[in-house]
Structure formats: C-alpha cells, structure tokens
Amino acid sequence: MYKDYKKSFQNKLDKLSRNYGKYTVFSDFVKMCSISIYNVFAKNEEMEKVYLNTIKAYEKEDRALFTKMFADLIMMYKTADDIIDILGPIYEHENLSNSHIGQFFTPSHIAELMSKVSISDDKSDFEKIIKENGFITMCEPTCGSGVMIIAFAKVLKSFDINYQKNLLATANDISDVCAYMTYIQLALYGLPVIVYCGNALTGETRFKMETPLYFLQAWKFRKAFIQKPEDNTNKQKESIVDKTIQDKFKEVMVKGNCQISFFLKKGRFTYEN
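RE: above sequence
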C-alpha cells in the first residue's frame, strides 16, 4: 500500500515537472500544503496571498494534481510501518538538495542511532523530566526534513512515552523548502512543533509556523503556566490572551498543573493535561 501511494505521488510529480521543472513543482507543493494546514488553525492573510500567488502559475488541470499529490502523501503517512521520514528521501532521490550550501540530509537510520546514543536509555530519566518540567523540549537548528525530531519521537515511542503529549520541539532551517517539509511531516505525525525559517546563527527569522497540535493542545499557554509539582497549587490563575487571538478567546483559566480551559465566544473547549 505504502509503495503504491509513493509511486502514485512520484508519477504526478514527474507529470507536473515536464512543464514547470521538478524543483519548482516540489517546492511549490510543500509550500502550499504547509499553508493549507497552518491556515486552518491560524488564519494568516500574508500566507494566503503567498498560496494564491503560487497556485495561479499553474493551469486548472495541473492544480488538481497538487490536491491528489497531497492525498497520496497523507496516505503514505497513514500506511507507513512506523513514524519515518518520507519527504526527505523523496527530495534526495529526485536530486533536489543543494550541496553548494552544504545541504546533505541525514539518513533515517543514522538519525535514530544518534538519538539513541545521545540520550538516556533509562525511561525513568524521561519520566523525571516530565514530572519536573511538565514536558520534554528539543531544539533542531538545522532541521532539513525534520528527521532528527522524527527519530527522537520514535525513541520516546519505544519507551511508551506519548511524544504527542510530552514533547515540544522547535525546528529551524535556512531553506524555506526544508522548513515546509519539516512542518508537513511533523504536522501529519501529530507533533507539537514550532518551525522557523531563518538563520540559526544570526537569529534572523523569515517566517514561523506552529503545527496543529501546538494549537489544539494549547501549548502557547501550557508553556507559560506550567508549574513544577512542588510549586503546584489549586489556586486558579487568570491571564489576558495574546492580542492576536483575542477574537477567539475571552479568558484563559489555568488550574493546578496545566489544566487549561478556553472560554470561546460560542461554546467551550477544554484541554486537560
């Protein structure tokens, strides 16, 4: 099944590439997919303009192929045996990486080995971090396709630790194509991640995008109000919501160790850690 969807994806990529060029098609594809996912949760007018300016360069029948490619990609994630890097190997296989700027992607098995040898092999160490800090953090300053974060999530999974709930990652890459690839993969795997596109050395950032689970699990507030167990109280704390989302939320209530309730204009959504 996985191989069938991968073949279907690559056939469509090849078909579009005849008229537009493979790098252009692939980069436009990951850009539009990323914006499509992101704008469901955080409507960004500037990104919407980027999407519309990108898609209008293609004929109507070609636009439909992008939708079908995205469907193939989603099914590849759904039918894969495990959480794996899918877009990175495709990018490399199609010779789209740029060796002139030192762009060499880490193979998945090497990334998994690096994760295993660079972190503890004792599950209790991770449980201690989660107990003391509320969650585990990871920073990847040159993320490529996000393979190192995927590999680390796989290691957590092997310890029966829910990486979707207990891992918050930040990813950065100077290449917008890489930032978009990372965003798509980690979004579809359900990881809470903030993806930056910019120079990790100078601190310059061109754009940033948060994955759906970052919004759905209220990490913006979870980070701000997480309390260590020894400091935990049952007293409620209130906070004024950031101006960018004041139109969505009226009030944020934090109870104890990150039990967050959102009071919407219509109805109520509750997230409990």
